[in-house]
C-alpha cells in the first residue's frame, strides 16, 4: 500500500517499507528502505545533519546536498557523489537539479512504451513529477510497488518541454542512498561457458562499478546484484537486491561516500550512449526492480523468484509444466538429417522425453558456423521432406517438435547478405569485426524487423512447432547505422528486438520460447518477459553447473533455468562425471537431455528412464517450488532444496565437486526451512554406480582371469551397475532442522548398497514427504539408517 503524510510517502509491502520525503529544498530524500515502519516514525528515521563539514556546500534552505540520503540527485549543485543523470543543453550547460513539483498515485503499473515491465495486478504506482530548477526539462520518477512480493520497480521519464534539443548522456533507472557500514556486494560474473559465478566482495569508500558493453546483458556480468550487511547468510542478515528489466548494455554502481552512505544506481550503460531528446519528446528508461529483506540471501531469492514467476514470465507459462527436451546439438552438431533426428526422437520418447529440439544445422548452406545464417529455408539434402515432413513424423511419434533459430545474425556467406549487405551492422570505413563468422543485423531498420518477423512467423504458421530456441551468438561492435545515430544504436537495437519478439510471440503465446545467447550471454529479466526459460550455459558439465545454477538462483527462479544432461567426458572440461550427478544437478532446473542416446548402454538407458519418470513425478515441485541453498557445507560440497509452499514435500540435492581427502568425514542432510512440527518420510532417489568407475579395483572381487578393463567386464558394465546410497527413514521436521547423518561414503573397502559410492563428483537426490497426521509418530522408533 502507498500512503502519504506530511510530505512523506510510504510504499509498504508485506515485510518491507520504503519511505521517501520531499525536503525543504525540494529534493527527494530516501528516508528509509528496510523493514516495516510507521509513517509517524519517519522524521526519526530521516538523516538530517544540523551542521556541515568544513568544505561542503549549503543551499539557501540550510541543507547540505552532499550529505543527504537522496532518492534522486543532480550534477553541479553541491552533491559530489555520482549523479544518476547527465545531460547537455543546447548552450553546452550540464548542471541539472530536479525538484519536486507534484505527485500522483495510480492503481496498477504506470504504462510504458516499448520496454518490458512487471505485470501490475494488485500493484500500485507513485509518480513523482520533478522539474529541472532552471531549464524546461521534466523528470518523472515512477515507483511501482508489488506488495505481495515485496518488490519495488523504479524507472524514469524525461520530457523535453523546451524548444531546443537536449542530449542525454546518462539516464539511470534508479538511484538511492542507503546508510550502513561494511556492506558487501554480490554479483554474477563470468564469460562464455562460465556464466553467473557468484562473487562476494567487501565494499570500501569509492565506487564499485559493474557494466556490460557487449550490446547484451552479457555473460561477463549479469545486471542483478545485491548489497548485504556483515554476517549475512542464507537465512539471516539485511540484503538489498537489484535487477534491471533490460537486455542491453547495463550499468550499476555502488559508491560508498566518505560519510559511509552507499549510493546505488542502475540503468543503461552511459558508455557509447547519447540520446537526442527533441522538443516535446519523452525518453523512458527501462524498469529497475529492487527488494530488501532481513532474511538473508534466501529471503531475497524468495522475493525475486515469486516476482519473476508471477509478474515477469509470460502469463501463458506461469503455472505450466515445461516439457523434457532432447536437443540435437550435443548429439550431432550441425550434421542433422531426417533419419538421425527421427531416431533421436524415438529413442528420446522411449526414455521419457517429450520434445525433440532440432538445433543448428537445418537450413541451406549450414554445414558449419561459417555460412547460411540468415537464410531460413530447409536444406533439401538433410531434410528431403522438408521441416513439414520431419515435424509431422516427430509428432506421430508422440513427441512435440521444437526448432532452433538465430534471427538477429547473418553470415557474410549467405543469400541474405549477398542480397542485402546493408542489413548488417558495420561501419563503412572499417573492416567488419566478426564473431563466430557472423554479423548482427541492424534491427533498428523496419525492413530488417519485417524480414525477421516474416521468417519466424512463417515457420510458426506453417509447422506444428511448440517450442523455439532463439539463439544469438556474438557481441555488438562497429556501432554504425545509416538510419540511426551511433549513440542510440545499442539501445534502439534492444527496443527493436522487444518489438520483434512482441510481434512473433504475442501472436503465438502457446509457443514455448527458450532464449539462448551462446549459453547464458543474455540471461536477464527483459528476455524473461518473452521467454519463460533461458539456456543457462553451453557448459553442461554438472560440476560447473553447480556454480552456474547456484549463482543464477540468487536472483532467478529455477523455472527459468534450462539445464541439460549431456555425455561425459564433457566437451567443455574433459571431465568424467557420473550419470546420476548429471541428472541430479539438471533436475534442479528445467530438465532436458542433449547427447547421442544411441550410444548409451542398456544400463544407462534404464537409468535415464528412471530419471525422467522421477522428474515427471516431481515436476511442478522441481520447476516451481521454493528454492533454498545451504550455506553450512564445506567448499567442495553443494546443497539445494526445493520445497512445496506448504513445506509438505521436497526434493533435496547433496553434491560434491570433488573429494578433498580420502577417509571422508560424515555428511548431514539438513533442511532448515522444513516444518519442524510435521513428520516426514525421507528417501534417497534410487541410483546406480557404473562398474567402470571401479576400473582395476574390480580385480579384488573378480575371478583372477578377468581384468577390470577387459572386454567381458566392459560388456558386463553395459548391463549391470551397483546400487548406491540407499536411504529411507521417518523422522520429524526437527531432526531435519538439526541435520540427519547420511550413510557413509565409500572409504576404500567393502560394499553395501547403502554406501554412497560418490568418489569425486558424486551427488544424490532425497525426497521428503510429510506423513499424514497420526502416521508420523516417530518417537522412540529407530530409522532404517541405524
Ligand atoms: C550456441 C548455443 O548456446 C548452443 O546451445 C547451440 O544452439 C549452438 N549455438 C548452435 O550453433
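^ Assign residues to that structure.
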Amino acid at each position: 500500500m502507498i500512503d502519504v503524510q506530511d510530505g512523506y510517502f510510504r510504499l509498504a509491502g508485506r515485510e518491507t517499507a520504503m519511505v521517501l520525503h520531499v525536503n525543504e529544498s525540494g529534493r527527494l530524500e530516501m528516508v528509509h528502505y528496510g523493514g516495516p515502519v510507521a509513517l509517524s516514525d519517519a522524521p526519526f528515521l530521516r538523516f538530517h545533519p544540523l551542521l556541515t563539514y568544513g568544505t561542503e556546500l549549503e543551499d539557501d534552505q540550510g541543507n547540505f546536498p552532499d550529505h543527504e540520503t537522496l532518492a534522486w540527485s543532480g550534477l553541479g549543485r553541491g552533491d559530489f557523489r555520482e549523479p544518476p543523470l547527465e545531460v547537455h543543453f543546447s548552450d553546452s550547460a550540464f548542471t541539472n537539479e530536479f525538484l519536486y513539483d507534484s505527485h500522483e498515485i495510480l492503481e496498477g503499473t504506470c504504462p510504458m512504451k516499448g520496454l518490458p515491465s512487471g505485470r501490475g495486478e494488485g500493484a500500485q504506482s507513485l509518480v513523482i513529477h520533478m522539474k529541472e530548477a532552471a531549464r524546461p526539462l521534466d523528470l518523472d520518477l515512477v515507483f511501482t510497488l508489488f506488495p505481495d512480493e515485496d518488490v519495488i520497480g523504479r524507472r524514469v521519464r524525461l520530457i523535453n518541454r523546451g524548444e531546443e534539443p537536449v542530449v542525454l548522456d546518462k539516464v539511470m533507472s534508479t538511484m538511492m542512498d542507503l546508510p550502513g557500514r561494511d556492506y558487501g556486494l554480490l554479483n554474477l560474473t563470468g564469460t562464455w561457458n562460465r556464466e553467473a559465478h557468484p562473487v562476494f566482495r567487501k565494499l570500501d569508500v569509492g565506487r564499485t562499478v559493474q557494466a556490460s558493453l557487449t550490446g547484451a546483458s552479457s555473460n561477463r556480468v549479469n545486471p542483478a546484484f545485491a548489497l548485504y550487511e556483515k554476517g549475512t547468510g542464507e537465512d539471516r542478515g539485511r540484503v538489498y537486491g537489484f535487477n534491471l528489466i533490460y537486455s542491453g548494455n547495463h550499468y550499476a554502481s555502488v559508491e560508498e561516500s566518505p560519510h559511509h552512505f552507499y549510493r546505488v544506481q542502475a540503468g543503461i550503460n552511459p558508455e557509447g550512449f547519447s540520446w537526442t531528446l527533441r522538443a516535446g519528446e519523452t525518453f523512458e528508461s527501462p524498469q529497475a526492480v529492487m527488494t530488501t529483506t532481513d532474511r538473508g540471501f534466501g529471503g531475497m531469492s524468495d522475493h525475486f523468484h515469486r516476482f519473476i514467476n508471477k509478474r515477469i514470465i509470460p502469463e501463458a507459462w506461469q503455472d505450466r509444466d515445461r516439457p523434457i527436451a532432447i536437443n540435437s546439438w550435443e548429439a550431432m552438431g550441425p550434421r542433422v538429417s531426417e533419419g538421425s533426428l527421427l531416431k533421436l526422437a524415438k529413442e528420446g520418447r522411449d526414455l521419457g522425453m517429450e520434445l525433440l529440439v532440432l538445433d543448428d544445422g537445418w537450413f541451406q548452406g549450414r554445414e558449419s558456423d561459417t555460412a547460411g545464417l540468415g537464410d531460413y529455408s530447409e536444406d533439401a539434402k538433410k531434410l528431403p521432406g522438408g521441416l513439414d515432413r520431419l515435424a509431422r513424423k516427430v509428432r506421430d511419434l508422440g513427441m512435440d517438435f521444437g526448432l532452433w533459430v538465430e534471427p538477429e545474425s547473418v553470415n557474410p556467406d549467405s543469400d541474405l547478405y549477398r542480397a542485402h549487405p546493408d542489413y548488417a551492422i558495420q561501419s563503412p570505413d572499417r573492416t567488419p569485426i566478426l564473431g563466430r563468422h557472423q554479423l548482427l543485423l541492424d534491427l533498428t531498420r523496419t525492413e530488417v524487423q519485417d524480414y525477421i518477423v516474416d521468417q519466424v512467423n512463417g515457420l510458426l504458421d506453417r509447422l506444428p512447432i511448440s517450442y523455439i530456441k532463439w539463439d544469438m551468438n556474438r557481441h555488438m561492435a562497429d556501432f554504425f547505422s545509416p538510419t540511426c545515430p551511433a549513440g542510440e544504436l545499442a539501445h534502439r537495437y534492444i527496443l527493436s528486438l522487444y518489438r520483434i519478439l512482441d510481434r512473433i510471440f504475442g501472436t503465438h503465446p502457446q509457443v514455448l520460447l527458450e532464449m539462448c545467447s551462446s549459453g547464458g550471454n543474455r540471461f536477464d529479466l527483459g528476455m524473461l518477459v518473452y521467454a519463460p526459460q533461458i539456456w543457462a550455459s553451453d557448459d553442461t558439465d554438472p560440476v560447473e553447473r553447480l556454480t552456474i545454477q547456484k549463482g543464477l538462483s540468487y536472483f532467478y527462479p529455477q523455472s527459468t533455468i534450462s539445464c541439460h544432461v549431456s555425455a561425459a567426458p564433457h566437451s567443455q572440461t574433459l571431465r568424467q562425471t557420473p550419470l546420476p550427478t548429471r541428472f541430479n544437478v539438471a533436475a534442479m532446473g528445467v530438465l532436458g537431455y542433449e547427447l547421442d542416446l544411441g550410444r548409451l548402454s542398456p544400463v544407462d538407458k534404464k537409468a535415464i528412464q528412471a530419471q525422467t519418470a522421477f522428474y515427471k513425478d516431481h515436476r511442478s515441485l522441481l520447476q516451481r517450488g521454493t528454492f533454498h541453498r545451504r550455506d553450512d557445507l564445506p567448499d567442495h560440497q553443494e546443497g539445494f532444496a526445493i520445497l512445496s509452499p506448504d513445506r509438505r514435500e521436497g526434493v533435496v540435492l547433496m553434491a560434491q565437486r570433488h573429494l578433498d581427502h580420502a577417509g571422508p568425514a560424515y555428511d548431514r542432510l539438513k533442511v532448515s526451512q522444513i516444518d519442524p512440527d510435521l513428520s516426514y518420510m525421507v528417501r534417497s532417489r534410487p541410483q546406480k554406480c557404473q562398474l567402470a568407475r571401479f576400473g582395476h579395483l574390480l580385480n579384488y572381487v573378480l575371478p583372477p582371469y578377468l581384468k577390470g578393463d577387459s572386454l567381458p567386464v566392459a560388456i558386463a558394465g553395459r548391463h549391470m551397475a551397483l546400487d548406491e546410497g540407499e536411504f529411507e527413514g521417518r523422522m520429524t521436521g526437527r531432526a531435519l532442522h538439526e541435520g540427519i547423518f547420511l550413510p557413509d561414503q565409500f572409504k576404500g573397502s567393502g560394499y553395501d548398497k547403502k554406501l554412497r559410492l560418490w568418489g569425486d563428483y558424486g551427488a544424490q537426490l532425497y525426497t521428503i514427504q510429510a506423513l499424514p497426521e497420526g502416521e508420523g509418530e516417530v518417537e522412540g522408533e529407530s530409522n532404517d539408517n541405524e
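Confidence is low (pLDDT under 50) at residues 780-786.
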